Amino acid sequence: QNTIVSYTDGSFQIFDISASLTITLSNFPNDKIAGHLRIYLTNNTTNSVNVTFNVNAGTIKTYTGFTYNGTNNVNATPNPVTIVSNSNATIDFWTYNNGTIVFMKHVGTFA
Fold this sequence. Notes:
Layout lengths: L1 E5 L5 E5 L4 E6 L4 E13 L5 E7 L3 E4 L3 E3 L2 E4 L6 E3 L3 E11 L3 E8 L3
Parallel strand pairs: 1-3, 2-4, 3-5, 6-11
Antiparallel strand pairs: 4-10, 5-9, 7-8, 10-11
């Protein structure tokens, strides 16, 4: 399953996911204008789902995390993102160059 998410539809968008899918991000602002998009995904099924993100004519760079007490990649953002059953994920995307490079960071799961 594929879905296109347009920045022009709003900077905060909500999706209820029932199966694994690919989300393509599009229509970011012009070059040298910052664009920020937050996506909130819910999975109300009894199965885990994977959501893969890509961008039209661009590259997604994921957050690699940080090192804490000798552990590397703490809080790293994977792509695809796995959302376990009956859970959610909030993910931020931002760009400054019309989506040529889009940065991606998993903000968290909220109860």
